[in-house]
Amino acid sequence: MIVVDGHNLIGRGLRIPLSREEEGRGRVIERLSAWASSRRERVTVVFDGDRAGDAQAGRVGALRVIYAPSARTADDEILRLLRRSNPRSALVVTSDRRLAVRVRGLGGRVETAEAFWERVRPRRPGAPDPEKPEPAAEEVEEWLRVFREGKNPRGK
């Protein structure tokens, strides 16, 4: 079982500010659903939510999506899920150090949001990495000149 701290993945893995929360949630859900389906993994993503009552849950393909109720945080929901299952078989994705310590205390494993996103983010052969901007034409020309002439960029 993989449990993902959704907002942590938005901010740390995708590097999207939480001011663009809806966009981030959409990208996380879309990508995790596709990844979970392709790997036949049991994946749950937990988001903080402002919803009254019990945690709201749903499915998007192979992905289980949970919104923590207003009385609890996503961290509380993640720990509740671990306690209700076998924590030793769980991998929790978070870069939140306090949550990571608590997960390990229950016997679970932790992977940072950044490392996990590197494993699951979409890649197309030959396509530019959307998270790494293409170099400017001037930069390409400078590097081509440097390598053609065998000089370092500072002209030494």
- CATH class identity: Alpha Beta
Number of domains: 1
CATH fold name: Rossmann fold
The helix count comes to: 6
**Second-tier CATH architecture:** 3-Layer(aba) Sandwich
Q: Estimate the mean pLDDT confidence.
A: 82
Which range does the strand content fall in?
15-25%
Helix percentage range: 40-55%
Estimated radius of gyration: 20 Å
The total of beta strands comes to 6
Strand order of the largest sheet: 3-4-2-1-5-6
Low-confidence spans: pLDDT under 50, at least 5 residues? none
**Secondary-structure element string:** EHHEEEHEHEHH
Structural class: alpha/beta
Largest sheet, if any? Answer: 6 strands, mixed
Note the overall shape: elongated
**Termini separation (Å)?**
55 Å
Outline the structure in words.
The chain has helices spanning 6-13, 21-39, 74-84, 97-105, 113-120, 137-149; strands at 2-5, 43-51, 56-60, 63-69, 91-93, 109-111. With 156 residues, it is of the alpha/beta class. It has one domain (2-125): Rossmann fold. It has a six-stranded mixed beta sheet. Helix 1 (6-13) packs across helix 2 (21-39) and helix 1 crosses helix 5.
Compact summary:
The protein has 156 residues and is an alpha/beta fold. The protein has one domain (2-125): Rossmann fold, CATH 3.40.50. Helices cover 44% and strands 20% of the residues.
